[in-house]
Every structure is written in structure tokens, then in C-alpha cells.
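Contributing new records

If you add data, match the layout below exactly. Sequence lines come first and carry their own label; structure lines follow with theirs. Keep one chain per record. Anything else will be rejected by the validation script.
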Amino acid sequence: MNNIERLQKMLPADNCAALITSDVSRRYFCGFKSSAGVILVTKEQGYLIIDSRYFDKAKQRVTDCRVMLLEDMRTQLSELLLKHNIRSLMLESDYMTLTEFADYRDKLHFVELDPSPELSQFIWDMRIIKSSEEVELIVKAQRIAEKAFERLIDNISRDMTEKQVAALLNYYMMDCGADDLSFETIAASGVNSASPHAVPMDKKLCEGDFLTLDFGAVVDSYHSDMTRTLAVGKISPEMEKLYNAVYYANQDGIKAVRPGINGKVVDSVARATLAAWGGYDKYFGHGLGHGVGLEIHEQPTLSQRSRSMLKPGMIVTVEPGAYISGKFGVRIEDMVVVTENGCDVLTKSTKNLIHI
């Protein structure tokens, strides 16, 4: 079954339909990226209603829905709902604002709008397990990021600023074939590396600094995500110890990923490794990982509060870090896909400490 058919099967009754309004869900269900439009799914048919900016391309690419040119949303939706005798319309509660809900309630006053989390949860349950085609796109995005990283290492110089490093890495990702960047690239050196989500600054790289790079590429709407921490010249023994602690926390976290294990347990494994290296777990203030796919942060999670049970086909990051405020920090991040017996590491770039 395609995704539309799977959604049709979950509709609780013949007179029930689902309205897909978010950009990410439109891409998931019809395979077409757009910034506007809705998908109406009934038991009998799926409809993509989209405006003239996207209509011709959608007609060419979308095969799982009937593509309709947007003329008047109220009229078109009303006619379709009446045609299929729809009495209850499920909504994406995770993405719809109160203003949007009020607007649809005004437009479609003759049907019961269902804003419960049922539809959003069903979609998450679908998206959390990646198909082989989705994994292939994520791997393609990851390979682009890795090629860009290799080019950066060959061309980086110590007289660069963090902003220049980030800009060069961004250029290489786009030049290597990325459709977009997964997020704003992080290039954080020296004391800035102690901030997990630092913003690149005009600060130049300095001898003895760490340089943390967090970046990713997008291919056909699917994201990649990786982090590597580099050394600018010679670093202190204390910094080397911290790097090794995070390195082994990353390795142990990856070894813990397997089907049937809770994300909280995987997180605890990495924290235990950091603790064993001299109490570095107290400098690890975020979760160990998150899902990656059509969005850069998806379900499941690996964290101290995680309720996620890992299953084959899930893709998660494993990204332990330790950040000593006012001094420096280290993060190493890989993506893995859960398999029947454990996991496969999708990130191929070396994790040995690189000196520039």
C-alpha cells in the first residue's frame, strides 16, 4: 500500500475523512513539496488541492491523489465532503493553529471537525518507520554532507572566522548536490564550543581551540545530520581526555541501539560512559539523539525522558556531548538506522580527532 492507502485504511468510518494541511505531511503523502495546498483523504479517493504555482508540476509528479487546481477552497472542499457524504473530518492537531482551526470551522460548518491527536499520532506512527526509499534519500543527503566536510578539511585555514568556516561548508554542501541545508550550520570554536547551539561569529580560529561543526544536507526533502569536533593545532591533555570521553560515549551509545530497547536506556548508556571518564556526564545537558527524516527533529527520541521503544526502520542520531562552560566543549554525532539485530551506522566520516 502507498501512504494514501494506509491512511484510508485507518479512517474509522465511511463517512470520515482526513484533512492534511502541513507542508511536511503533504510531501509525505503525495511525494510533492509545496508551500501551500491541502490533501483531502476519504475512503474512496485522495485529493490534492493546490494553487496555480504548483499545479502543472503536481499533475506531472503526483500519482496517488487526484490533483485539483485551487479556485475557491471553501467551495471545493464542501463539494467533495458532500460528494462522499463526510460527517467527520480529522485534522492535524500537531500542526494546525487555533486561527486555522477557526477558519476551517467557519468554512465547513456542516461537518464535525475532529482536532484530537488521533490523526497526527497515526501519521507519526507511519513516518517513524522509514521505507527503503526514505533511507536511501537520507543516506544520499549524508554522503553529500560528508563530501563537503572532506573538502572543508582540505581547504580550511586558521585565519578563518567561524562565519567563514560555516559559509564555506554550506557552499560545499550545495556544490556537492544538496537541495538545501538541514538547518543553520554551527561552527563554534574555543569558548563558543561550550555552547551546544552556538551561532557562528566573527571570531577567528585560534591555536589550541576546539572547533565543533554541526551540519546537514537535504535531498528531495529528506535531511541528514552530523557533528564533528576538530582540534586547531595542539590541544591540552584535558581537552584530549574530554574528546576521548565523548568518542567512547558515542561508540557505546551506538552499540546500545537495537530493536526492543527504550530510548531512555540508550541515553543512559552514553551517560554512564561519560561518568566513567571522570564525571563528564554532569556536562551533558541535552538528549542523546532524535529521529531524522522529512524534518531535522522527529520521533523517536533518545533522552532521559524518552518513552520511545526502538523498532527496525527507525533512524536516530547518537550525539553525546560535554560542554564545560567558559572553557570548551565536544560533540560527536552519527546517524544510525535500527535493524533487526542492532543498527547500521549511516555516517561514514572518521571520528578520530582531526588537527587543522
